[in-house]
Design brief:
The complex is a heterodimer of chains A (about 325) and B (about 400).
Chain A: H1 9-38, H2 42-63, H3 68-93, H4 97-118, H5 128-133, H6 153-156, H7 161-179, H8 181-189, H9 191-196, H10 201-223, H11 225-240, H12 246-274, H13 283-301
Helix pairs in contact in A: 1-2, 1-7, 1-10, 1-11, 1-12, 2-3, 2-4, 2-10, 2-11, 3-4, 3-10, 7-10, 10-11, 11-12, 11-13, 12-13
Chain B: H1 3-11, H2 17-42, H3 48-54, H4 56-69, H5 77-101, H6 106-130, H7 141-144, H8 152-181, H9 183-188, H10 193-232, H11 238-262, H12 268-286, H13 292-316, H14 324-332, H15 344-366, H16 370-373, H17 388-399
Classes of the chains: A mainly alpha (about 325), B mainly alpha (about 400).
Chain lengths: ~325, ~400
């Protein structure tokens, strides 16, 4: 029965873990994305995911090896540094946010590429294309011989480490958003009211950006920056067109993110086979594409797609 | 050690035919990108270029597939650029459509378009990698740009395209400046802001497409934004921002191209961007007026004026001054001696300051309006605000305390 719908042992080995990682990454990015969209800061996600590259390269140059924690620290440091630089250019130079962002992320990205090309990283798994596309397809579970392996401690110990890491990050972000729900909501919709209530508005701002940076860095390692940017923006944007209530918007965004990850991965892995082609296409690219299709459908048909007060067409 | 002569020969166009064409093409592209970017920046739409640039990738992929399907080898640069222009146009339309037709803001539209188009482009690239026909090698250079291994025909396309883009900017500079500077005024002159914005977007597309091969689609955004922001530090006038941005863009692209020609392992795009970023940093720090150092200096001067004024008032009222900065300012101006006792000059100035303060108090009572009250900052001498007659009137009132009720 399970075999008949294509969910046999092969699926467990080759597709289960990438799909789970993809879903977790999508959820981790979409959650803070909801607040970024409402605060007109959607492109912060874009900026952060570009500057993760120099952070990782510097971490590699310092430690000399591709290990997880130094790279995560390097990337997170670069992300926060870039937010600092953007703020400094805005305040000190009195430059509008978009332009300040453009200057910062392109410069840091260029520095990252140059460092990468100049340093001897050819022997290790570190290059620009990998950074952009990620390698979701390669996060397979070789010891996963079938659904029974889910109960086998030895096989479970062999799960790709990205799975656990992404699960921890996604859970942490969910918990933080749930715990700080009220201040997040109030400061997003009415900053003045939030100030009157004595909420630390500046700190909340920084907190949201830090959440986004953590999500971007964790997801970047596993799935590349394309998914990160797409998941920050597309599912929350589509969800924004579905409802006027923040609770429901977040719910919809998680549904859309999960749907993009699952459908995108399946289309990338199995889609070409339906057309008789042998190899699969980029899963990261396909997930981004599917999220775009969902957004287009939302733009065309979602109930709250227009600005309130705007005349409806007959 | 042979890098410097190689750089100099590239800089003086002695490094061979291709390198010369690329340097000229890059310089022209830099001029076009700088000026077009300045208009974008003045219209506050700098990041639209990010969406346009990322949206070129699927066009490059589809054009490659189409050319291979028609029996070519797929690497014809003109064909690839035509494809990229079409998909960049579609991306731009998508941004406009989402912004106009839905409640989503422009930044969300930009982010959605750039990630989805780019993601779809990557899907196409992986399809191309599995194709047996066509020579796909080098297609990735559109991501980050590459001038190594560029054919003569490619270099020629870039040089000619750059020249055409500069010519287009020169032709449209007046209406574009008007619209960027004051869209409402431009409309009263009969210029359609909408149409000029459309023209601006076409120019952005052209710059992005020409820049693909040199700096790549991710970094072309830098060439549009950085020179414009840099130029903004040096002037308050829109036309000068445009001219300066064109110059800065041209210099960074030309110097960057020469640098990378001298050291083949150095990728062109990042070097050009870093040269531009270097000039940006210098401007952020050192520009007069808007620069950080100038602001610090102004702040310090203001602080000294405040301390001078308060110190003089304290002298006049014969209060003890404890503030070290106030003491230092007074001493350096020769108004007090080292032991803190006022000099003759100090006493005279203190008296004048006290009179000024008294006149101000009276003026604020008498002229309860914006023109006068708005100018009071505790520093400006009243002579700069009121006429001699008005001050005389105030002095008359001051001489008869108690009359003002």
């Amino acid at each position: 029965m399970i075999e008949a719908v294509g969910l046999g042992p092969d699926f467990v080995t080759f597709s289960l873990t990438p799909i789970l990682i993809g879903v977790l990454a999508a959820v981790a990015c979409a959650l803070p994305g909801n607040f970024l969209i409402l605060r007109r800061q959607a492109l912060i996600g874009d900026a952060i995911s570009h500057v993760v590259l120099p952070g990782i390269v510097v971490a590699f140059l310092v430690t000399g090896q591709v290990t997880t924690w130094p790279m995560m620290l390097g990337a997170a440091g670069a992300a926060l540094l870039s937010v600092g630089i953007i703020t400094a250019i805005r305040r000190l130079g009195r430059i509008e946010a978009g332009a300040a962002m453009g200057v910062t992320f392109t410069t840091l990205f260029a520095a990252g590429v140059l460092l990468l090309e100049q340093s001897d990283t050819s022997s290790v798994h570190l290059d620009v294309e990998h950074a952009l596309y990620g390698s979701l397809e390669s996060l397979i579970w070789l010891s996963g011989m079938g659904w029974g392996s889910l109960l086998d401690a030895a096989a479970l110990a062999d799960l790709p480490p990205e799975l656990l890491r992404m699960a921890v990050v996604a859970a942490a972000i969910s918990v933080i958003v749930a715990v700080f729900w009220r201040p997040l909501k109030i400061s997003t919709f009415d900053e003045g009211f939030a100030r009157v209530l004595g909420l630390p508005v500046g700190l909340i701002d920084l907190g949201i950006i830090t959440l986004a940076a953590v999500a971007a860095v964790a997801a970047f390692d596993a799935v590349g920056s394309i998914i990160v940017i797409a998941m920050f923006i597309c599912p929350p944007a589509a969800a924004r067109l579905m409802t006027n209530r923040l609770e429901r918007q977040v719910g919809w965004s998680l549904v859309f993110a999960t749907l993009s990850a699952v459908v995108g991965y399946v289309l990338a892995g199995y889609g070409p086979g339906w057309f008789g082609a042998e190899l699969s296409v980029s899963a990261a690219g396909m997930i981004a594409t599917v999220s775009g299709v969902i957004l287009v459908l939302a733009c065309l048909f979602a109930p709250q797609r227009r600005r309130s007060g705007e005349a409806r067409e007959a | 050690m042979e890098a410097l002569p190689a750089f100099l020969s590239a800089l003086t166009l002695q490094a061979g035919y291709n390198a010369t064409l690329v340097a000229i093409g890059a310089g022209l592209l830099g001029i076009a990108a700088g000026s077009v970017g300045a208009f974008l920046f003045l219209r506050k739409r700098a990041l639209v270029s990010d969406a346009v640039a990322h949206a070129t990738l699927p066009g490059v992929g589809l054009a490659f597939i189409a050319m291979v399907a028609l029996g070519g080898d797929g690497r014809n640069l003109a064909g690839l650029l035509a494809g990229s222009a079409v998909s960049a146009g579609l991306g731009l339309l998508a941004v406009e459509w989402i912004t106009a037709r839905t409640r989503l803001a422009e930044d969300a539209a930009i982010g959605a378009v750039l990630s989805v188009f780019f993601g779809f482009g990557v899907v196409l690239l992986t399809i191309i990698q599995t194709m047996t026909s066509g020579r796909q090698a080098g297609l990735e250079s559109f991501l980050l740009g590459s001038t190594a291994g560029m054919l003569y025909a490619d270099a020629l396309i870039i040089a000619v395209g750059g020249a055409l883009a500069v010519a287009a900017v020169l032709t449209l500079r007046r209406p574009l400046t008007l619209v960027a500077f004051d869209a409402g005024y431009a409309e009263t002159l009969g210029l359609s802001a909408r149409r000029m914005d459309l023209g601006l977007m076409l120019l952005v597309m052209a710059v992005v497409v020409i820049g693909l091969k040199i700096v790549g689609l991710i970094l072309i955004v830098a060439m549009l934004i950085i020179p414009a922001v840099t130029a903004r530090f040096w002037t308050e006038r829109a036309e000068i921002v445009v001219a300066l941005a064109a110059m800065l863009g041209g210099i960074s692209a030309y110097v960057g191209a020469a640098l990378s020609a001298a050291a083949p392992a150095v990728p062109t795009g990042p070097v050009i961007v870093l040269v531009a970023a270097f000039m940006f940093t210098l401007s952020l720090l050192f520009a007069p007026g808007r620069g950080v150092l100038a602001a610090l200096w102004r702040r310090q001067r203001f602080q000294r004026r405040v301390h001078l004024r308060q110190g003089l008032l304290a002298l006049a009222r014969e209060e003890r001054i404890l503030e070290p900065l106030t003491l230092r300012v007074l001493r350096r101006a020769g108004l007090i001696r080292a032991d803190g006792v006022a000099t003759d000059a100090g006493r005279a100035r203190a008296a004048r300051t006290l009179r000024d303060e008294a006149r101000w108090d009276m003026a604020l009572l008498q002229f309860n309006d914006e023109m006068v009250a708005g100018r009071y900052d505790g520093l400006t001498p009243i002579e700069e605000v009121l006429t001699g007659d008005e001050i005389a009137e105030i002095d008359r009132r001051l001489a008869r305390p108690g009359v003002v009720a």
